Amino acid sequence: MPDSYTAPLGRLTRDTSRIITKLRQRGKLPQNAGVRSIEKSDWPEIIGLHRLLFDISNEEFALRMKTGGEGIRYCNRLSVVLEYDGNCLGTCLFLPMESDKTAWLFGAIVAPSWRRTWATVVLKHAAFNRAAKQGVEAIAFQAFNDHPDTLNHAARVLAERLP
């Protein structure tokens, strides 16, 4: 069972900025990578990534991308896709924001062959900056025991463990 955490967005972006700066100094950041809003044409690749965490049907994913309604929904204005050389390498899927200015990050999912590279930090950094522009002040997320990068990130930013 995963543990849930929350951290101020400022701490999260400072942490990812520090890592981005180091990667840039080492020449490890590609020039043609970018993060943008999710488009319907991205759905097949995102569904494939989503299935790495939790199985989901095409129909269920389409429902989650719709605004309003019952059940789990993803927030279109916060959720993003990481693109590199025309390929979808990852996605950050957020749940709709609550009134307390905290956004739930459902998952930051990167293709297995791109994990432990620049891709995850670039994806998270851009998603956090986008969230800040939308008025988000804190990010809540879950960390599974078999995801040490997420657990380490939580520790670095002194994330508060939720009950």
From TrEMBL:
Coiled coil: none annotated. It comes from the Bacteria. Gene3D superfamilies: 3.40.630.30. It holds the Pfam family Acetyltransf_1. InterPro entries: Acyl_CoA_acyltransferase, GNAT_dom. Residues 33-163 form the N-acetyltransferase domain. Signal peptide: none annotated. This is GNAT family N-acetyltransferase. It comes from Ruegeria sediminis.
